[in-house]
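Researcher: Before we compare anything, I want clean individual predictions. No alignment, no superposition, just each chain on its own. First chain goes here; please echo the sequence and then give the C-alpha cells.
Model: Echoing the first chain and its structure:
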Amino acid sequence: MGKGGDTFISDSSAQLETGIKRKTAPSAAFTGKLAFAIAAAALGSSFQHGYNTGVLNNPQQVIESWIKGSMTNRTGKIPTQENVTFVFSLMTSVFCIGGMIGGATTGLVADKFGRKLGLLLNNILVILAVICEASSKALTSYELIILGRFLIGVNSGLNAGLAPMYLAEISPINLRGAVGTVYQLVITISILVAQVLGLKNILGTDDLWITLLAMTIVPAIFQLITLPFCPESPKFILSSKGNENQARKALSWFRGTMDVHEEMDVMKAESEALKLIPKTTVRELVTNSTLRIPLIISLTVMIAQQLSGINAVMFFSSTIFGMAGLTGDSPTYATLAMGGINVMMTVVSLFLVERAGRKTLLLVGFGGMAVDTLLLTIGMLFAHTGSTAGIFCVIFVLIFVVMFAIGPGSIPWFLVSELFNQSARPTATSLAVCINWTANFIVGLAFLPLKDSIGSYVFLIFFVLQVVFFVFIYKKVPETKNKTLEEITAMFRQQSYQ
C-alpha cells in the first residue's frame, strides 16, 4: 500500500484512539466459565504442541531398533546406522516442517472459520495422525509415522496461532497476560508428561511405544467434548459477523454477569474503526510503518525464543548431567527434574506477568540466560577436571531453564495478539508462528553439527544472540501491561512518525 494508504489507516487509528479515550476497558474477575474456556482451548491445543515435541526423546533407541528391523524385512539387508538415524531424524524434524505450514495458514483459518471452530476442525488432523501412527507398526511402515508426525505438526502450528488468539480475545485486560501464559504452561506440562510416559518402565518399551505416540488423541477428545460448550470470541463475533447481541451474550458468558456495557462499548469502538480499515495483507504489514514496527518486534521476539538456546540446553542436558558424575538412569531422571522446574517457573511467570510486566520479564529472562550461558560454557570447558565443575554445570543448566521460563518461554506466544488490532491480528499471527517454527527447525538442524565441530563453544553463539536480543527488547519492545489495544496502537503510530 502506498503513502495514501498509510494516511487512511492512520486517520482511522486516530478515530479509534478518540473512541477509547471516552471508554476505557474495565477490569474483570476470573470466573469459572472463563477458566473452563481456557482449559478447553489450551489443554486441547498446546498439549499437542508440547507432547509431540518431547514424545520421541526417551524411546529413541527402541524406535530406531524397530526402524532397523523394518528396513531389514523389506530388503533382506541390514541397514547402516546412518540410514536408521536419517529416518529417525526425519520423523523428528518433519514435525517442525508441519508446524511451519500450520503456522502460515493460521490467518486464513482464523478468518474463515473463526477461532473456536478453527480449533475444533483442527482436531481432524490429530485423528488422521493417530490413525497413521497407530497402524504403522502392524503394517511395518515407518513412512506412516513420518506422515502422522507431519500432520500433527500442521495441527500444532495452527494451534500455536489459534489458541493464543482465542485466549487473548476472551480475556479481560487485567488478566490478558496471565491467561496468555497458560499456553506455554501447558506446553511445559505436556513435554514433562511425554518424558514420563516415555520411560522404559512405563510406555517406552518395545511393545508399548506405539501406544505412547497414539496417546496424543486424548487431548483432542478432551477439546472436542469441552470446547463446543464455550462461545466464540466476542471480538470475532462483533468484528467479523457484526452481531452485537450475540457478542454481548458471549461476553456475558465469559464474565459471569450481564453488566458488560463498558467492555462492549470499547469493543464496538474498535469494531467501528476497523470498518474503515481494509483487510490487512502481508504487503500492508510490511509497507505500513504503523504496522511494520509491531511486526518486526513480533517476529524478532519469536526468533529470540527459539534461538535463545533452550532447545540446545534441553538436548545437551543428559550429556551435562553425565559430566557431573550421574550414571545409569540418573541423567534421565535429572532431565525430568529439569522439566519439572520448567513447569514450576512457568506457573510463577503466570502470576508475575501482570505484576512485573512483559518487557521486564523478557529482559530478566534474556539477561539472566546470557550471564548463565557464559558461565555454562566456562564450566563445560573445565568439566573434565573433576566432579565439582560438572556439578556447577548442572546448576547452570537449571538456572538457564528458570530464566527461560520466567518470560521468554511464555510471553512471545501472546505478545503478538497484544500488538495488533482485529484486522491485522490473524495475518501477523500467521507470520509470527511460521517464523517461530522455522527458527525451531533451524536450531534442531544446526545444533548437532555445530556441537560436533566446536564442542562446548557452541554455547558462545547463543550467548551472543541472547545479548543482541536483550538490547533489542530494551530499545524496541513496549510494555503492554494493562494497556488497551488502542493505546498500544497509538504508541506505534507515534514511533512511526519519529
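Researcher: Okay. Second chain, same rules.
Model: Second chain and its structure:
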Amino acid sequence: MASSRTDPLTLDVIQLIGGVVARYHEEYDRAAATHALTGAQARVLGLLSLQPMPMRKVARKLKCEPSNITGIVDRLELRGLVERRPDPADRRVKLAAPTEEGIRMAEQLRDALDFAREPLAELSEAERTVLRDLLRRMLGEETA
C-alpha cells in the first residue's frame, strides 16, 4: 500500500528532516558569526571550497537567486576570501573560487559543525552510505 502524504510515518519523517535542517542552519550561523560572516556567506564559502564554480551554479545548489549570490561573493571578495577568475574551459565564464585564506576559513567552519558530524559518527559506514543514497534519491540526484 502506497503511503499518503499525511500518514503518521511520513509526517514524522518530515518533522525529523525539518529538525535536522534547522539545527544544522543554527549551528552553521553560530560558527559563521565567530568569523564575522553571515550563515549565507559561510555556506557559499563552504561550497566554493569544494570546487570553484560559476555563480549561477552556486545559486542552483543553494536554491536562491543568482543576484543574491553575486552580492554574497562581492562581500567575500572584499574580505579576501573569494576571487573571481576565468573558467579555463570557457574564458567567457567567471568562476568564484576561494583564496587560500578562504579555504582555511571554510575548514575552520566545517570543523566547528559538531552537530552534523557527531551523530553521523555513531552510524556505521554502511548506514551512512544508505542515508546518503536515500537523501540523494529524495533530491533526485544520481547515486554513485
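Researcher: What stands out in the second chain?
Model: The chain has a mean pLDDT of 89. Additionally, The chain has two domains: 8-112, 113-144.
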